[in-house]
Design goal:
By secondary structure, the protein is α+β, with helices and mostly antiparallel strands. The protein has 2 domains: 41-163, Chitobiase, domain 2 (2-Layer Sandwich), CATH 3.30.379; 166-332, Protein Transport Mog1p, Chain A (3-Layer(aba) Sandwich), CATH 3.40.1000.10. 25% of the residues lie in helices and 30% in strands. The protein contains 6 helices and 15 strands. The chain has helices spanning 48-51, 54-63, 132-164, 168-178, 226-240, 317-328; strands at 41-45, 78-82, 96-102, 110-115, 123-129, 180-181, 188-194, 197-203, 208-217, 249-252, 260-266, 269-281, 286-296, 301-310, 331-332. The strands form 3 sheets. Strands 7, 8, 9, 10, 11, 12, 13 and 14 form an 8-stranded antiparallel β-sheet that branches. A 5-stranded mixed β-sheet has the order 2-1-3-5-4. Strands 6-15 form a two-stranded antiparallel sheet. Helix 2 runs parallel beside helix 3 and helix 3 (132-164) crosses helix 6.
Length: 338
């Protein structure tokens, strides 16, 4: 049953580009320190004049744009900025760095991406241009790739943390029964497990996070149609995810924000990503969810991985990013029931 919680206390802050990645730089000790920085925070190295001008306006328009499908508006990223002269060693360990160089002596606009330069995991993006207008043009051209890479870097950091705190027992149970595994950190538990459905959850006084896994035989491509993805999720949650009051159950919300769907490459497989809001029929609860539907060709089955958050009164972007990282940790196994 989904549980309601008191709101005591304060919640703590929780492919490839068209150019080749440059090899990582290793420090004199032969290894890189762990990167730092808050979740979904980008440090911009840029002159104050440019930050306060049209170049900065374009940066803010891209990276502070609204994160998709949450209960309340939240930016995709939190932005910090310092000038080049202030970029000392203390800032080199930041996880996400964007260097903006705008100087009239530059002959052409250059775009560069490097990984793990001063720390790991770390992504460093650099755009050099002779004018603010040239910078804006290059940013407009590359913005989708840059946003994706920064989110991938966030996911890499979270997966690394999950691996260090993994509940290997849950992973083994999933592998034995469902032929797949997820890197589930300690604090989660299996709430329900039947032949084609599993609910893994984590509960605190302030939040609830859940991961749903369900499978079905692959018959045809109709399984990827948005209305079928929603209908299947609703049927599974009505059957297996009850709400806090008698007769209540989780369902996809169709009230304020409709779900959005996107075809993606998920772990080298074609998939449909669905983002939306859920609520409880017969009660007053809700939150965001993310869903990936793809085919396991070896077993000719459709796998759906779904994760949701309940965190009333609190921002939910960072929770959903954690959910996304959990789902991306999936590994298919050839061993079932062994």
């Amino acid at each position: 049953m989904i549980k309601k919680y008191s709101l005591s206390g304060f919640v703590k802050n929780l492919l490839l580009l068209t150019i080749a990645f440059i090899s990582s730089c290793i420090n004199e000790n032969g290894y890189l320190p762990s990167s730092s920085g808050k979740t979904a925070e980008i440090l911009f190295i840029i002159d104050k004049y440019q930050w306060d001008g049209i170049a900065g306006d374009s940066i803010k328009a891209v990276f502070r744009s609204e994160y998709r499908v949450l209960n309340q508006p939240e930016p995709m990223f939190n932005l910090a900025n310092i000038e080049e002269k202030s970029f000392t060693k203390i800032f080199e360990s930041h996880r996400n760095i964007f260097i903006v160089e705008i100087k009239p002596e530059f002959e052409s606009t250059k775009f560069e991406v490097r990984k793990n330069v001063w720390a790991q995991p770390q992504l460093v993006v650099r755009i050099s241009a002779k004018s603010a207008e040239d910078f804006i043009a290059k940013l407009s051209l590359q913005k989708e790739q840059i946003v994706r890479l920064f989110f991938e870097n966030e996911r890499e950091r979270m997966l690394k943390a999950f691996k260090h705190d993994e509940d290997v027992t849950i992973g083994k149970q999933l592998r034995d029964k469902y032929g797949l595994s997820l890197t589930i950190p300690n604090g989660y538990f299996i709430a329900k497990s039947v032949d084609n459905f599993c609910w893994i959850r984590r509960e605190t006084e302030e939040t609830s996070m859940g991961v749903l896994i369900y499978t079905q035989p692959y018959l045809d491509t109709a399984v990827f149609q948005p209305e079928n993805i929603i209908a299947l999720r609703d049927s599974m949650t009505q059957l297996h995810v009850p709400g806090p009051s008698d007769g209540s159950y989780m369902q996809v919300s169709q009230k304020l924000i409709l779900p959005i769907h996107k075809e993606i490459n998920f772990k080298d497989s074609y998939a449909v990503e669905t983002r939306g809001l859920w609520d409880v029929e017969g009660d007053f609860m809700g939150g965001p969810f993310i869903n990936y539907t793809f085919v396991d060709e070896e077993r000719n089955r459709v796998i759906t991985l779904d994760a949701f958050v309940y965190a009333p009164r609190y921002n939910k972007r960072d929770y959903i990013l954690q959910c996304e990282a959990l789902l991306y940790s999936v590994e298919l196994s050839s061993q079932v029931g062994k």
